[in-house]
Prior knowledge:
The chain is an alpha/beta fold.
Amino acid sequence: xxxxxxxxxxxxxxxxxxxxxxxxxxxxxxxxxxxxxxxxxxxxxxxxxxxxxxxxxxxxxxxxxxxxxxxxxxxxxxxxxxxxxxxxxxxxxxxxxxxxxxxxxxxxxxxxxxxxxxxxxxxxxxxxxxxxxxxxxxxxxxxxxxxxxxxxxxxxxxxxxxxxxxxxxxxxxxxxxxxxxxxxxxxxxxxxxxxxxxxxxxxxxxxxxxxxxxxxxxxxxxxxxxxxxxxxxxxxxxxxxxxxxxxxxxxxxxxxxxxxxxxxxxxxxxxxxxxxxxxxxxxxxxxxxxxxxxxxxxxxxxxxxxxxxxxxxxxxxxxxxxxxxxxxxxxxxxxxxxxxxxxxxxxxxxxxxxxxxxxxxxxxxxxxxxxxxxxxxxxxxxxxxxxxxxxxxxxxxxxxxxxx
Length: 404
Ligand code: BGC
């Protein structure tokens, strides 16, 4: 039966992929992968779960794994990836990595993120930079503002924007977004060495450092720049405020760049990026990775094929140009990247740069510690009567509990 064999073939050549890329920019990036895989005879069966930062997707994924019905491929990143690989849930990709010469073509930090226990455990897709300050170029030109390189620049720009009736900073109290902003402030106030220590969480007392207190005070200041009660808009809505010129600035991972591009904006023309003040030459990274999950359905060959395709130079470029992240490979022509991505890629490539992992995006802390920290920060920003000292005590206690 011709039809049956076609159907069997189609099924045999498809993989279920669970992820949380559901915004306009994220979908555009996923489409690049879908098309490239399709050209090579592999069908991507989409199992997307909406929700910024993967808050819902990770819960659904856990449920499916516990029920013995994991998707073939999933966006499993950072600590979740290494924890799951310890549990034997993830297919090692050493052969693919060796054939593709990942050791010599990928950024060392990327290799480190996908390696665990001496094995390669995921296919890396792109590197996001979290310490990114976006600003609206039309407003900057109209108000004759200078690029915001320091906190003083930010304060001056904020005053001018306010006078012009524009909200200085787009903001959301959604816990993961507050945690995303806060970690950039930890890096700005603490520098890379203290930040690395905070992220490693081996010495909870490091969280009692005076620089953490300064970061909390800075967080409160930034939130005030956003006006009263900003609520908890989704990250796509705060990005839209920037896009429309309703807000002048936004601190967000550079997936916001992917979103702006999907709406027709262009880096350098309609919006610009600067490293968050005091974090130039530092890269606070979150590496997106696809893990191949083990199940009774033996899909190894197809899973390896997918891992191989998504890490090819042309696919890397197409995907990352849409996503706002940068390729995981060093053998890319940086001239192909826009202003925002080029600075990120060059910072990654420069030997003098300091690279530190995102706590809010699972590169350092486990899921429950990351969530507890985000909740504490959310409580701090939404309750003006809570002192920074009290908030710091909470952070220390959470990290101490996790280190036990
Ligand atoms: C992911 C990005 C995603 C962003 C917003 C981050 O945790 O790494 O790929 O675009 O969340 O949902």
